[in-house]
Sequence to fold (222 residues):
Amino acid sequence: MENEHQSFDPIEYVDAVYPDLPMMGAARARKFEQLIVDYDLKDTLELGFYKGKSSAYIGSILKSLGRGHHTAIDMHYAEPHEPNIEEVMTKLELTDYVTWYYEQQSYLWRLMRFLEKPEDNLFDFCYLDGGHVWDITGFGFMLVDRLLRPGGVIVFDDLDWTIEVGIPEARWPKYPDIDFRDRFMRTKQVKKVFELLAMSDQNYECEIWNDDWGIARKKENS
Ligand SMILES: C[S@@+](CC[C@H](N)C(=O)[O-])C[C@H]1O[C@@H](n2cnc3c(N)ncnc32)[C@H](O)[C@@H]1O
Fold:
């Protein structure tokens, strides 16, 4: 049985079936694989799955190891994507390893439900890749921290992302204070969360990987 789990490369498998599916690529998936194997991570969480590419990598890695489960959360407007996560997971035969939720308001509300029953909703890993503003990412981190086991890992994507570069056509409110509006557009808001909330937290050991991933590991004795 063990051989069956190790007989395929989980990342090459996803790439062979979906060579062009955005957004994550194989190099970052290899980093996930390293973290999952090195730290023996089993119950994984993802905030922002889009079409399910990174979820596919994580689910495939868990399947290759024969353990764990991936929980992925996005907005209701991710459902009409072609393909959407359901189609991707079905085609890759990963539905036993991945559960996904479409939210009306935010992943923050799903995390509220998880916190209502934390005994059923603890995680060893979180890929935080959605809602890249201070309020959402910051509160997301605080909530995930409550659900993360000691030794667990949080990966913050897009440390260098700004609204100005990422979505210049911004659907954001036009703030009357121009100085604030500029700050809002130009601040690296995920990086602010990583620096001000994760790096300053004595329960976490943090590193920056590949320039734009912030990796925060909760200490075993925290
Ligand atoms: C960069 S994409 C995720 C890409 C995916 N992780 C991958 O690598 O294939 C960001 C996703 O976050 C979702 N998102 C943004 N804000 C969100 C929120 N507050 N709650 C849930 N999902 C959110 C968006 O709908 C989008 O699909």
About this structure: The radius of gyration is 17 Å. The chain has a mean pLDDT of 95. The pocket of S-adenosylmethionine is lined by residues 23-24, 48-50, 53-54, 73-75, 78, 103, 106-107, 129-131, 136 (CB under 6 Å).
